[in-house]
Write a structure and sequence with these properties.
Blueprint: E1 5-8, H1 17-25, H2 29-34, H3 38-47, H4 60-68, E2 74-79, H5 86-99, E3 106-109, E4 123-127, H6 130-138, E5 142-145, H7 149-161
Parallel strand pairs: 1-2, 1-4, 2-3, 4-5
């Protein structure tokens, strides 16, 4: 199949938001939501520029090598959660990408619901959020629900090598 573009999410795909969140607050994001503390802690996370300090997810470095070898344009497509955080989180994510030498074009959107606007029948998104996957497919794109890089690379390779 001819693919024109591969979009890659950051948090939960390239970098480990959950690990850093837990390290700082000793709560998983879902636990913080249950206790009505997520918003307060998320604001602290942003204020201390934690998006720039995340560790790569396991397998990210090898996955970047693979993506660079695909002969398909790759772009970042990442959410800043809400428009009020757009400038701060975008800058922090830019810093993270620069730190790891990732030079793909960057697309930041003010909420995950906006990612579907990039979907085309010949574009793929790699994302770990189920609602993004559903929205992308409903908008006519091809989606890979990321759980780990070995599985994602296998699925991507299958799509890219399927005859036209």
């Amino acid at each position: 199949m001819q693919i024109d573009k591969i979009y890659v999410d950051m948090d939960g795909v390239l970098c480990d938001f959950t690990e850093k969140y837990y390290e700082l607050f000793h709560l998983l994001p879902r636990e913080a939501e249950k206790h009505k503390r997520f918003d307060e802690l998320f604001r602290q996370f942003i204020a201390t520029e934690q998006f720039a300090k995340l560790n790569p997810m396991p397998g990210t470095i090898d996955a970047l090598r693979y993506l660079n070898s695909c002969n398909v344009p790759v772009e970042i497509l990442s959410s800043t959660a809400r428009s009020e955080f757009y400038d701060q989180i975008s800058r922090q994510k830019e810093d993270w990408l620069t730190r790891y030498g990732i030079n793909f074009p960057r697309n930041f959107v003010p909420g995950k619901r906006f990612k579907k606007q990039f979907a085309t029948p010949r574009s793929i998104i790699i994302d770990d959020t189920e609602s993004v996957i559903t929205d992308w497919r409903d908008s006519g794109g091809i989606a890979i629900h990321h759980t780990d890089w070995n599985t994602t690379i296998s699925k991507l390779n299958e799509i890219l090598t399927t005859p036209k």
